[in-house]
Amino acid sequence: MAAAGRRPRPAVQADGKRGEGREVAEFAAGVRHKSSVQYLSRPDLPKLAYQKVKGKSPGVVYLPGFASTMNGQKAVALEDFCKSLGHSYLRFDYTGCGESEGVFEEGRIGTWKKDVLAVLDELTEGPQVLVGSSMGGWLMLLAAIARPEKTAALMGIATAADHFVTAFKALPLEARKEIEDKGVWKFPTKHNEEGFYSISLDLIREAEHHCVLQSPIPVTCPVRLIHGMQDPDVSWHTSLQVADRVLSTDVDLILRKHGLHRMSEKEDIKLLTYTLDDLIDKLTTLV
User: Fold this and answer.
1) pLDDT-derived band of residue 28, with 50, 70 and 90 as boundaries?
2) Residue 2 pLDDT > 70, yes or no?
3) Quick one: how far is CA 1 from the chain centroid?
4) Is 162 a catalytic site residue?
5) For a FRET experiment, which of 28, 49, 98, 102 has its CA 20 to 30 Å from that of 66?
6) What is the pLDDT of residues 129-188, one digit of tens each?
């Protein structure tokens, strides 16, 4: 039952209209709408590719994970859902990723943080709900700290706060020394054909300047953290740490017992859309 004064959870059909007896996530898993790619030009910095849907406030901005693009399943599903609600939505590619300019191997956490801030500053109006997947969850925290006035709420999916740094420090001493000698870490992954990402030592060292878990995180907006307990890449304990560190008193941590890292199964997408819907509902009810 919906709380007094709040709109009921919408039932959304594949044509974007609300219909009886249809679940929110059916739309999110349905037809993908074509959007034209645009580019944000920045002085002396690579152009950023993005796709934007105009709509009501609060808007939603999707932050992809490491080596991911704005065309991932979650990014597109949430765009379709925001269209159904009539809220603005923006997804983009980081420097060196997807259709954006730049060299991926030269990217750093600070590089991609600047990308997020540029998108918030130049392409959005009013407060936004930042949805960050994996590394995007780390970046959403950094963006919320830097732009509190632009951040209405946060929704982290398998949030990988401080991940490269903590994973590197957890390696045996000999392994760390070998990486330091070679300058490159072949970071194991199941998400590409090679079976690893080549991560430079420079990226790890630079990332140390952007760690957030060693002290209270000055974020006071509503925060929702979703994490799979079977995530082989980033432990759900990281999201627990984030929940503990943020100063916000409105924090929910949602654990999926059989959830994996990408959270892209049909039931996962349904949970994401429900969670985003509740956040938007909360924010619009408070206005």
Assistant:
1) very low
2) no
3) 29
4) no
5) 28
6) 999 999 999 999 999 999 999 999 999 999 999 999 999 999 999 999 999 999 999 887
Q: Is the dihedral of CA 71, 44, 210, 123 positive or negative?
A: negative
pLDDT attached to residue 1: 35
Structure tokens at 101: 């300019």
For β-strands 87-92 and 56-63, DSSP reports them as parallel
Indicate the residue type of 129.
Answer: V
Q: Which is catalytic among the residues 261, 268, 277, 281?
A: 261
Q: 115 an active-site residue?
A: no
Per-residue tokens: 215: 């002290």
From the list 259, 234, 93, the residue with the least C-alpha distance to 167 is: 234
**Cβ–Cβ < 8 Å for 260, 233:** no
At 139, list the tokens. Answer: 């970046």
For residues 228 and 160, give the distance between their C-alpha atoms in angstroms, rounded to a whole number: 12
pLDDT score recorded for residue 8: 42
- The span from the CA of 252 to the CA of 27, in Å, is 25
Please list the residues that pair with 245 across neighbouring strands: none
Helix (H) or strand (E) holding 128: strand 128-133
Q: Which residues contact 211 (CB under 8 A, 6 or more apart)?
A: 161, 162, 165
* pTM, 2 dp: 0.87
Residue 285's H or E segment, with its range, is helix 266-286
> What's the DSSP call for residue 217?
B
Q: Is residue 89 a contact partner of residue 129, using CB atoms and an 8 Å limit?
A: no
Other Cβ atoms less than 10 A from the Cβ of 13: the count is: 15
Q: Exactly one of 115, 231, 233, 281 is catalytic; which is it?
A: 231
The Cα 97–Cα 66 span in angstroms is 9
Measured distance CA(151)–CA(59) in Å, rounded: 10
Residue 156: in which H helix or E strand, if any?
Answer: strand 151-157
Based on the residue annotation, tell me whether 261 is a catalytic residue of this protein. yes
pLDDT per position as a tens digit, 29-39 = 444 445 689 99
